[in-house]
Design brief:
- The longest helix has 20 residues.
- Strand 3 and strand 4 form a beta hairpin.
- The chain has 3 helices and 7 strands.
- Strands 3-4-7 form a 3-stranded antiparallel beta sheet. Strands 1-2 form a two-stranded antiparallel ribbon.
- The two termini are about 25 Å apart.
- It is α+β, with helices and mostly antiparallel strands.
- It is elongated and about 55 Å long.
């Protein structure tokens, strides 16, 4: 087992190659950073995700300055192909969620180490 450092928090990871931060690890990091219980941190993350999901489903943009914007976009109807038979298929139009990263988030991700 290895450890991933997130700010001052060390997060144990099973698969270092994947470099993923799962929900449990995110809850632990939030609890440590805010000095709240893991249960409270879990409820806070669940509430945040629920609010973002409901807002985007109602076609409301959720803009977090410096982090990014969550929004629903319209995907036009198109023609696809069945990979097994090659037959043309009609794919219906749909609303899909989209995330656009903010400038500060992009800068933090692209920062040279």
């Amino acid at each position: 087992m290895s450890e991933l450092t997130h700010g001052r928090v060390r997060i144990s990871t099973v698969h270092q190659k994947e470099k993923k931060l799962n929900k449990t690890e995110l809850i632990e990091a939030l609890a440590h950073e805010t000095e709240m219980s893991k249960a409270a941190a879990g409820r806070a993350i669940d509430a945040l995700l629920e609010i973002i999901t409901k807002s985007v489903a109602k076609k409301q943009d959720v803009q977090l300055i410096g982090f990014g914007t969550f929004k629903a976009t319209k995907r036009a109807a198109r023609t696809g192909r069945n990979p097994r038979t090659g037959e043309a298929l009609k794919i219906a139009a749909a609303n899909v969620p989209k995330f656009t990263p903010g400038a500060a988030f992009k800068a933090a991700v692209n920062k040279k180490k």
